Amino acid sequence: MTDCIFCKIINQEIPSYKVYEDDKVYAFLDITQVTKGHTLLVPKEHVTDIFEYEPTLAGEVFARVPKVARALEKAFPEMQGLNIINNNKELAYQSVFHSHIHLIPRYGESDDFSIHFGNNQAAYSSESMQEIAEKIMKQVEQ
Ligand code: 5GP
Ligand code: ZN
């Protein structure tokens, strides 16, 4: 895609700090470095977000996540954890519309990454949980 910053990075039209590349994916340092080693893994094929992936491409991209994760762990033995994040659409914090997976190494509670998981368990009866699960299940592609 001509007007996509990540396509331009993949095509070497703009510079990046490359971490890994093969025929299917490109991985490079996120410019903001939320924590040291913060890496983006992207498919070379332009897909906007998770909703656009064909199964084959999804398999190719997600199969490479552990490879980059292990490289980070070996590169930074002081690493204590790793958050893997994939934002889809603006409300969910997607700001670059070429699908990408964030790998964010964690070094301690006071590193510069945080995430909030609310707990709304009390608001859902077992009946409503069952109803929600069935509603989703009906839509899963066979
Ligand atoms: P999103 O918010 O879409 O999940 O993540 C997009 C990420 O791309 C952000 O973390 C941002 O720092 C990163 N980013 C945006 N422009 C560039 C760029 O030109 N180079 C690099 N290396 N990262 C970028
Ligand atoms: Zn693109």
Automatic annotation (TrEMBL):
Pfam family, one: HIT
Gene Ontology terms describing biological process: nucleotide metabolic process
InterPro entries: HINT, Histidine_triad_CS, Histidine_triad_HIT, HIT-like, HIT-like_sf
Residues at the catalytic site: 100
Coiled-coil intervals, chain numbering: none
Domain of life: Bacteria
Domain HIT stretches: 5-115
CDD domains (alphabetical): HINT_subgroup
UniProt-recorded Gene Ontology molecular function terms: catalytic activity
Ranges spanned by the short sequence motif Histidine triad motif, renumbered to the chain: 98-102
Protein name: Histidine triad protein
